[in-house]
Amino acid sequence: MSSQSRLRMSEDQGITTVEFIDRNILDEANIQAIGEEIAGVIERSSPPRLVISFSNVDHLSSAALGQLITINNKVREKSGALRLCNIDPQIYEVFAITKLNKIFEIHNTTEDAVSSIG
Amino acid sequence: MAKGPEAVASPDRSSLGGGGAASRASLEIRNDRGEIEALGMRITEAAGRAGYSDASCFAVRLAVEEAVVNAFRHGHRDASPEEPVDVEFDVSAERIRVSVEDHGRGFDPSAVPDPTAPENITKTSGRGLLLIRSYMSDVCHNDRGNRIEMRYDKPAS
Questions:
Q1: Contact A27 B122 (CB under 8 A)
Q2: CB atoms within 10 A of CB A46
Q3: From chain B, which residues contact A within 8 Å (Cβ)?
Q4: CA–CA separation, A93 vs A65, rounded Å?
Q5: How does pLDDT run across B69-101, given as a tens digit for each residue?
Q6: Neighbours of A14 (CB within 10 A)
Q7: Which of B65, B68, B135, B139 to mutate to test the interface with A (most CBs of A within 10 A)?
Q8: What DSSP designation does B27 have?
Q9: Which residues in B lie closer than 8 A to residue A94 (C-beta atoms)?
Q10: How are the residues of chain B apportioned to helix, strand and coil, as percentages rounded to the nearest 5?
Q11: Contact between chains at B134 and A97 (C-beta distance less than 8 A)
């Protein structure tokens, strides 16, 4: 039912790179829509190889973290690879406080994230 | 003639529309994304005017977001979707105080599991209170557990 994508996606050599269009990843309805869109990519890929870039993101909430964990679980179920990148220091602190920096593999740049999968 | 009640201290009680420059207010917020975001913007704009850094504004905005979302998701789980929560904020040069009160039965904050524990780390919820406590200088709850009071002290520059 989501009419408008909240994501910008590109694919190269079997790796899908996802960027958020919104600067604030707070709204649960949007977060749900983002999760469904990424779940579609995961379902279509065997195995899923996914890079999520936070380059546009200024704010995110714990609901967004929960959705990232759901995505991570789906990728793992299909023995895929998930990398996060371009996380600015303020946002990274949210990952560090919640210790999710130990769960996710986080890279500085999209290039680093892509090459870590290759 | 004596002053009417409108002339006394409490600024706009009902909407986020007017009085954008106020540094303190007592408001009713509905479970509406626009209202919640406007509240966050209003507090951070007041903080910006009072000399708080971007990092401070980020911290306070995140805490307010989590507190309001928790109030609706948990406090108003069984309430009408139209039921608002009560928010008060006061931004001064030294500190920011924000309280969020829902109309639910309340909860026991000491019973909230540690979301960073190995058995909880991959759960998809339960991190809001941790973020609030991490970013704010002081956090307390009333006895009933339906009101959270948060204080953020401006860091020494």
A1: no
A2: 11
A3: 33, 36-37, 54-55, 58, 61-62, 65-66, 69, 115-116, 121-128, 130-131, 134-135
A4: 12
A5: 999 999 999 999 999 999 999 999 999 999 999
A6: 12
A7: B65
A8: E
A9: 62, 131
A10: 35, 20, 45
A11: yes
User: Contact B58/A90, CB-based, under 8 Å?
Assistant: yes
Does A2 lie at the interface with B, CB-CB under 8 angstroms?
A: no
Residues 6+ apart with CB under 8 A from A87: A54, A57, A95, A106
What is the per-residue pLDDT for A6?
87
| Residue contact B115–A98, C-beta within 8 A | yes
For residue A113, CA distances in Å to A41, A83, A106, A107, B155 come to 18, 6, 8, 5, 35
Q: Which residues in chain A show pLDDT less than 70?
A: 1-3
**For A36-65, what is the HEC assignment?**
HHHHHHHHHCCCCEEEEECCCCCEECHHHH
Can you list the pairs that B152-157 forms with residues at least 24 positions away whose Cβ atoms lie under 8 Å?
A: B152/B56, B152/B59, B152/B60, B152/B63, B152/B95, B152/B96, B152/B97, B152/B98, B153/B94, B153/B95, B154/B50, B154/B51, B154/B52, B154/B56, B154/B93, B154/B94, B154/B95, B154/B96, B155/B53, B155/B56
Contact across the interface for B33 and A67, Cβ inside 8 Å: no
- Which residues in chain A touch residue B81, judged by CB atoms under 8 angstroms apart? none
Cβ-Cβ contacts under 8 Å, B126 against chain A? 62
Two structure tokens written together for A7 = 């994501």
**What are the pLDDT digits (tens) for A50-72?**
999 999 999 999 999 999 999 99
Residue of A nearest to B62 (CA): A61
